[in-house]
Amino acid sequence: MSGRRYPEEFKIEAVKQVTERNHAVSDVAQRLGVTSHSIYNWSKRYGPKTAEHQSKADEDNRIKALEKELKRVTEERDILKKAAVSSSDHCNTLFNHV
Predict the structure, then answer these.
(1) 19-59 tens-digit pLDDT
(2) Range of the domain at 66
(3) 98 located within any domain
(4) 72 within domain boundaries
């Protein structure tokens, strides 16, 4: 056993190749340079039916949605800032004409 550690994303992608793309476990293991046993263990942990994997996917989706909303709100704020700066040159004040 090499004791090599793989990132979680690597493991999830390996499992997706088997579960979503219907590649054989042995083929995926050989291409990635891991054992079939590792792929089976990762499938148990990160497979589509595990609550942990679903929870992680839900969190990732929520983060993406929040990042998208943040980008939109930031753009809106920047537009409003520009509008405020350009309108400050044209104050709506009454002048006393004597």
Answers:
(1) 888 899 999 999 999 999 999 999 888 887 766 667 777 88
(2) 51-86
(3) no
(4) yes
